[in-house]
Design brief:
With 280 residues, the chain is an all-alpha fold. The longest helix is centred in the N-terminal third of the chain and has 32 residues. The protein is globular, with a radius of gyration of 25 Å. It starts with a helix and ends with a helix.
Length: 280
Amino acid sequence: MWLINSSIGRKVVMSVTGIALILFLTFHCCMNIVALFSGHAYNTICELLGANWYAVAATLALAALAVIHIVYAFILTAQNRRARGDNRYEVSTTVNAGKVEWASKNMLVLGLIIVLGLLLHLWNFWYNMMFAELFPCLHNDPAPADGFGKIVTTFGNPVYVVLYVIWLVALWFHLTHGFWSAMQTLGWNGKVWFKRWKTIGNIFVTLLVAGFIVVVLAFAFKCTPSLCKAAKCKAQTECMMQAPCDKAHGDCDKAHAGCDKAKADCCKEKADCPKAQAER
């Protein structure tokens, strides 16, 4: 089969899987940006994409795409090194000096960094969310759907912040080269459109990675609207719980308008207040 046995076929597989993964990253970035503005909305998405059958099926398909992309990357790299032999460094530094991009010469190293970052990300989020829902007996997490809380906890750790930023920078180098390379492999490599695809790719990938980095740094420095809203809700909740019962219930609805938590969490149940019951 030419997709497996031929060099061009392998490059086509790399290109198609790479584009599919970029589309997923685009969705993932949009989802993360939601967390900047509303923890409740973000957790609603997490519940929608939890351990439901369609989410599990999509996760398996995504994992297959990633594995195929990584395996074919190693195969193509080994194939290129065998073809060029000891002259591969001479070709890239002498014959094509100034023409071969740094990212192109270091795709394998960038790929390894991306794989390590991916494993870290899966550990921090997928393992503590979808895996925890699928196998609760193997993972004792009381709130596996609280994705917002896991974002706050993860990016509240400076070590994770640095590791994620390094991972995302490596991803930017990898994607800026991979985007136009995929278009070239799929045949959109005319002189005019090749330059256009390269420009479009650089702009799109820069915006994509910038979106991820903004989310990481915004939570690291605690300057997101969603965190401000959560802090305001917590302050209102604590204030009302200390207030007299009848007053607390009178202010509960007002506070709940700016609070993502359930009304039962904002104040005691009205039925528990003798004074409130006497007023009915």
